[in-house]
Each structure stands twice: as C-alpha cells, then as structure tokens.
Design goal:
Layout (H helix, E strand, L loop, with lengths): L1 H17 L3 E8 L2 E2 L4 E4 L9 E5 L5 E6 L4 E7 L7 E19 L2 E14 L2 E12 L1
Antiparallel strand pairs: 1-2, 1-9, 3-4, 4-5, 5-6, 6-7, 7-8, 8-9
Length: 134
C-alpha cells in the first residue's frame, strides 16, 4: 500500500514540476532588475486578455497586453492593486503561442516580449522569453 501511495506522490510531483513556469532574459522597472517569480496567462484573468502577467515575489506585476497587430500595451501593478499604471502603448512587441496543455482550464502559453516603454512615471524595458504560463 505504501509503495502505491509513494508512486502516486512521485507522479503528482513530476506533473507539478513539469508545469512550472519558466522565464529567461531581462526585465527592468525604473532601471532596477525585476526578478520574475512566476508568470500567468492573461486567459486566467477576469476579464481575460491576450497577454502575460509577470510577477515578482513581492506581488508587483508587469502586464504585457498583446494587441492584434503584435504591438504591446504595458502596465505596472503595485502589490494587491486591481488597477495598474499604464506605462506604454506600441512601445514593443509580444508574441504568444498557446500550448496543448491546460491547468485549471487555462491554456499554457509561451512567447517572447521585446519592449522599451515609458509613461505614467515609470520605465519598463524587456527582452525576455516565457513558457508554461497559465
């Protein structure tokens, strides 16, 4: 009985590790490195949007909203804030691909962001990739 439970636990742990979000590259906010803790698909948001949220361990969030032409709208959310500061429009590009896997009925996404946005008292510069954001 214990071997069966142990095997099930290992399978569950491997599934969780396989679904962990990954990011690479750089993201700065107001000239300081933004240490990405996790990423989330805009599909998980209410209301949903085409794009990605990048969060640090302190709860700040950088949102890259993809426009139909591939250009980006960029927002900065302070910890716990429901509304973010609009930092830039058409100041970069975002590319998003939906993967075949889903978590909580939200498609995992992967993609890239290249942006240099200034506005609302902030500057956000990004050259990054993301994967398994849900």
């Amino acid at each position: 009985m214990n071997k069966t439970l142990g095997a099930c636990g290992c399978v569950a742990l491997l599934a969780l590790l396989a679904c962990k979000s990954k990011t690479g590259g750089t993201l700065t906010v107001d000239g300081a490195a933004f240490a990405i803790d996790t990423c989330r698909s805009g599909e998980a948001n209410v209301p949903s949007f085409e794009g990605v949220d990048l969060l640090d361990s302190g709860g700040r969030r950088v949102r890259f909203l993809a426009k139909p032409d591939g250009k980006v709208r960029t927002f900065l959310f302070q910890p716990g804030a429901a509304t973010g500061n609009h930092v830039g429009e058409d100041c970069g590009t975002v590319s998003i691909t939906r993967k075949n896997s889903k978590v909580n009925n939200v498609s995992n996404i992967q993609g890239t962001v290249s942006a240099n946005c200034t506005g609302g008292g902030h500057t956000i510069v990004a050259g990054l990739t993301f994967d398994n954001c849900h």
